[in-house]
Amino acid sequence: MADLRAGLIGLGMMGRHHARILRDVEGVELVAVADPGGDPHRVAGGLDVLPGVAELIASGLDIAIVAIPTRFHADAAFALADAGVHTLVEKPIADDAATGRRVAEAFGTRGLVGAVGHVERFNPALQQLRARLEAGDAGDVYQIATRRQSSFPGRIGDVGVAKDLATHDIDLTAWVAQSLYNSVSAQTAHKSGRDHEDMIAITGRLQNGIIANHLINWLSPMKERVTVVTGERGTFIADTATGDLTFYANGTVSLEWESVSTFRGVSEGDVTRFAFAKKEPLRAELEAFRDSVLGARTELSTMAEAAHTLEVVECALASAREGVTQFVSDPVGADGR
């Protein structure tokens, strides 16, 4: 079978990585790239840098990656859907959830694969975590808490930290827990003089009853990417920056040494750091996109799921503005394809 002809629009910070990996993915040939701003990272290779999505489509594509600023996602996606091109759009799917749902419908009604780059689903630590939760290793899950902190990335100018980063945490939480969000409340802060928020704290409840907490900001000099899952048998901690997963079992051995118990509690359980293969998440995601186009079922975020994620973020921002808990609607066509 001939390689899938791939096109990439957007050669910025994310696009450069897509270009690098697409050239290495078996069964895929990168045949065209586009960016009206040129090729700042010099990743086009021998390909002409086309000015826009229309020229990209004219190259004759089977699949496409959209890695341009958020405000342009929907227009590019609609054009690719009209052209019959299977497409992966970088997160968030669009400027707002309503537009995201229309994008999902455009691909669904045409029988095309429409996916969104919620790449944390392919983080090896989170994949291991999801499998172990599904197997019951934590027992009944009570809470999923995430922390995603770093300094402000100068490349982001059209959205705040909620749509740029909280979308990661909301999607990964729903995916790991295998449950959608039911309600959220939030607080935001504006500390850097920008129009958009640079800090958000979200508390929510999933439809299966799990409590979710997310602390996200662009105001920290250190980078932190942590997911903590607390259950009846213990606590999993996934460090998604390193791909590590550790399990702290509930205490089974009583501590009789008073000074130690002051620091560790009244009992102590086993601590296990798991060893497993670690593939670059973006490479795994693009391989899954290829497989999905070829008919396989994968863990890609569908466009319908991504629209739900964006609605959760919008509800969180509304809660911060209005001071009340917001309830999230069920997505239509949750399977997305």
UniProtKB/TrEMBL annotation:
The keyword NAD applies. It comes from Microbacterium kyungheense. Keywords: NAD. Residues 5-118 form the Gfo/Idh/MocA-like oxidoreductase N-terminal domain. InterPro entries: Gfo/Idh/MocA-like_OxRdtase_N, Gfo/Idh/MocA_Oxidoreductases, GFO_IDH_MocA-like_dom, NAD(P)-bd_dom_sf. Residues 127-236 form the GFO/IDH/MocA-like oxidoreductase domain. It holds the Pfam family GFO_IDH_MocA. The keyword NAD applies. GO terms for molecular function: nucleotide binding. This is Putative dehydrogenase.
